[in-house]
């Protein structure tokens, strides 16, 4: 049993890296625009379909396919912002959510109409190596490393570049940032571009692990939202930590109980956080 728990713990850490990649873009967009990007998982789904078409159907090398998918995902992020989010920035939250649910439904049904309901996968075989009695999958290790590298680049971008500092200024106080000659509309657009790039990176890392289907994005959008809330809405580091907490609990809980109970524990954590620490792990409580 101890060996099983150690393997579950190790797999939970690696799974946390996958979840962190999924949550980065949604977290950043929420932090800047206060918009819950409910179609974010569908953007990852589109990236996965692009990789499948280019690699399997057209025979393009996987690495090049991933780069093209990242470009397509960034363009999709721009289109969603210009056509859906920007016109509703000053609208009520409910209107924004309904519009993004509409985008989610449109993308899912387009995928269903084009590719059907089949599960499509890229046939790649990755080795597994062991550290003692703990077995580690290379296919899960890649997203783990990518999540750490991505967070490092995001930190450097947000803290060492003018655009990154402008994004942080908008997060802290939009009105004051506008008075300091920061073009908030441009910052919003750049944020969605970055979110699209991050969704493309997530798709590139998930392509060797998961099969893609029209409803792929829904479950991952919900999981990413849980991570954003638990970590502290808009806090990238908090979301990063929450990803690993949720990954470990779901995997270890699946070994101790069942896979379904392990997934259920994730939502138990969400409810506890909302009840006892609504600002999240690293969020700041805002006084009314």
Provide a descriptive summary of the structure in words.
The protein is mostly helical. It has eleven helices and two strands; from the N terminus they run ααααββααααααα. It has helices at 2-33, 40-57, 62-85, 93-115, 138-160, 162-172, 174-179, 184-206, 216-231, 236-256, 259-276, and strands spanning 128-131, 134-137. The chain has a two-stranded antiparallel sheet. A hairpin with a 2-residue loop joins strand 1 (128-131) and strand 2. Helix 1 (2-33) runs antiparallel to helix 8 and helix 6 packs across helix 8 (184-206). The chain is globular and about 60 Å long. The mean pLDDT is 89.
Whole-Å distance between the termini? 49 Å
| Percent of residues in β-strands | under 5%
Spans where pLDDT lies below 50 across 5 or more residues: none
Helix-strand category: mainly alpha
- DSSP strand count: 2
What is the chain-wise order of helices and strands?
Answer: HHHHEEHHHHHHH
Fold blueprint:
Layout: H1 2-33, H2 40-57, H3 62-85, H4 93-115, E1 128-131, E2 134-137, H5 138-160, H6 162-172, H7 174-179, H8 184-206, H9 216-231, H10 236-256, H11 259-276
Antiparallel strand pairs: 1-2
């Amino acid at each position: 049993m101890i060996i099983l728990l150690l393997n579950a713990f190790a797999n939970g850490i690696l799974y946390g890296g996958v979840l962190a990649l999924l949550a980065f873009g949604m977290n950043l967009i929420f932090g800047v625009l206060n918009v819950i990007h409910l179609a974010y998982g569908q953007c990852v789904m589109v990236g996965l379909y692009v990789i499948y078409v280019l690699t399997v159907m057209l025979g393009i090398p996987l690495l090049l396919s991933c780069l093209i998918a990242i470009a397509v995902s960034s363009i999709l992020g721009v289109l969603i912002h210009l056509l859906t989010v920007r016109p509703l920035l000053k609208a009520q939250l409910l209107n924004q959510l309904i519009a993004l649910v509409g985008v989610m439904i449109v993308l899912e049904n387009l995928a269903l109409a084009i590719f059907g309901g089949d599960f499509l996968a890229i046939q790649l075989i990755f080795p597994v190596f062991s550290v003692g009695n703990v077995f580690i999958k290379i296919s899960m290790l890649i997203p783990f490393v990518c999540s750490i590298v991505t967070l490092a680049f995001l930190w450097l971008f947000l803290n060492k570049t003018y655009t990154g500092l402008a994004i942080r200024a908008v997060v802290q106080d939009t009105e004051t940032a506008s008075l300091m000659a920061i073009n908030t509309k441009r910052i919003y657009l750049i944020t969605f571009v970055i979110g699209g790039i991050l969704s493309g990176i997530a798709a590139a890392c998930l392509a060797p692990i998961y099969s893609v289907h029209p409803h792929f994005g829904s479950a991952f959008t919900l999981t990413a939202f849980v991570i954003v809330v638990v970590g502290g809405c808009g806090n990238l580091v908090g979301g990063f930590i929450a990803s690993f907490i949720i990954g470990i609990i779901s995997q270890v809980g699946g070994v101790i109980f069942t896979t379904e109970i392990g997934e259920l524990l994730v939502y138990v954590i969400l409810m506890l956080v909302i009840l006892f620490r609504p600002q999240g792990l690293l969020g700041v409580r805002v006084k009314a």
